[in-house]
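Now read this:
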Amino acid sequence: MSEKKIPLRQCIGCGEMKSKKEMLRVLKTVQGDILIDATGRKNGRGAYLCPSRECLKKAVKSRGLDRSFKMAIPKEVYEALEKEMEELGF
């Protein structure tokens, strides 16, 4: 039997490659809203982030979301993402 391939994704904060299940998916919807996709199955453009505050801070500093979504991300969106991460327990 062959081993099942585990999908890897790169964190936009630290740049580390991890399995998809270990990461949080940040989603840009068709309407332009940016939110955390807990299920990992919603429609839209996704970027992955380690479930830690350090990686979120690195993503803010390196403008990782700006590059992933090819648009300028307002400061309020990063604050909302930080609150959502707190609610999810990270």
Notes: The first helix runs from residue 53 to 62.
